[in-house]
Amino acid sequence: MNIILFLLIGLAAGWLAGKIMKGKGFGLIGNLVVGCIGALIGGLVFGLLGLMASTLIGSLIAALVGALILLWLIGLIKTK
What is the DSSP letter of 80? Predict the structure, then answer.
C-alpha cells in the first residue's frame, strides 16, 4: 500500500474514531498517529478473525476499528 494512502486512511480513521468516542480527538497529528497505529491494530485483529481488507473502504473500516480499540485502551489507562 502506498505510504501516502496509508497516512490518509490513518488520518481519516483517527478523526472518525475521535468523533465516535465523543471528543477524544488529539488534534491533526495525534489523530494521524492514532489512526496509523489503529490501522496496524485493525489489520492484526481482522487477520486473527480471518478477515482481509482488500478495498479502500475495507481498509478504512479496519483502521477505524483499530483506532477505536486504541482509544478505548487509552481511556482505560487514563482513568486508572
Answer: -
Total domains in the chain come to: 1
| H helix intervals, 1-80 | 3-20, 27-48, 56-79
Q: Contact at 8 Å (CB) between 42 and 63?
A: yes
Query: Against a cut of 0.90, is the pTM above it?
Result: no
pLDDT in tens, 20-33: 887 656 777 887 88
> What is d(CA 78, CA 21) in angstroms, rounded to the nearest whole number?
14
The per-residue pLDDT for range 23-75, each reduced to its tens digit, is 656 777 887 888 889 989 998 999 999 998 888 899 999 999 999 999 888 88
Domain that holds residue 31: 3-79
